[in-house]
Structures are given as structure tokens and as C-alpha cells.
Design brief:
The relative contact order is 0.12. Helix content is 75%, strand content 0%. The radius of gyration is 17 Å and the shape is elongated. With 114 residues, it is mainly α. The chain contains five helices and no strands.
């Protein structure tokens, strides 16, 4: 039993490593699948909880990225202000993720011009 649990946790850990700091949808879907396969008996395990937070955060980043793209296209000051703030909360502008989200800088520049 312990070996089966360890194998499932290891699968989650490997999937987190493959998905983290990427926007590759297949990697995030694979992580989500591994979380489902981990089963209910591991729902409260620290690594499963961590992985679930990462998946949720990535979904929020994807939403923010889309909203920033819309805000840039529309030149809507209030939307840009709100979604830039949200992107900052999600650390889309930090050194670890800045290269993944060039829309953050584009949105910030667009807002300054409005």
C-alpha cells in the first residue's frame, strides 16, 4: 500500500515539474489527470494540495492573460488597470514568469499611453 501511494505521489511530482513555469496546456492537463488518479485517499497530502494550487493558479493566469489581451485590443483603461493588478497578484510580472507573459508589459505600456 505504501509503495502504491508513493508511486502516485511521484507521478504528481513529475507532472508538476513538467507543467511548472510553462503555458503548455497538455502539461497542465496531464497534471490535472495525475491529481485525479491520485485518488481521494491522497486529497489532503501536502504535495497533492500544492499541485492543486498550482493548477488553479495557472487557470487564473490564463484568464488574466486573456483579459489583458482584450484590454490591450480595446484600450479600456479600467479593465487594464484591474487585470494588471490581478496579474501582479498572480506574479505574472515576476522574474520567474515574465518571459511567459509578455502581454503584461504590453498592457502596462498601453495603460500608460491612455
Amino acid at each position: 500500500l505504501a509503495q502504491k501511494l508513493a508511486t502516485r505521489i511521484l507521478a504528481v511530482r513529475i507532472a508538476v515539474r513538467a507543467a511548472e513555469k510553462t503555458k503548455i496546456d497538455q502539461n497542465w492537463a496531464a497534471l490535472d489527470q495525475k491529481l485525479q488518479e491520485a485518488g481521494g485517499d491522497l486529497n489532503s497530502h501536502a504535495e497533492v494540495l500544492f499541485a492543486r494550487r498550482r493548477v488553479q493558479t495557472q487557470k487564473l493566469r490564463s484568464e488574466a492573460e486573456g483579459k489583458l489581451e482584450d484590454g490591450v485590443k480595446q484600450g479600456h483603461q479600467a479593465n487594464l488597470t484591474m487585470w494588471i493588478k490581478r496579474a501582479e497578484e498572480l506574479e505574472m510580472n515576476c522574474k520567474w514568469y515574465a518571459g511567459l507573459y509578455p502581454i503584461f508589459e504590453t498592457a502596462s505600456t498601453t495603460l500608460q499611453k491612455i
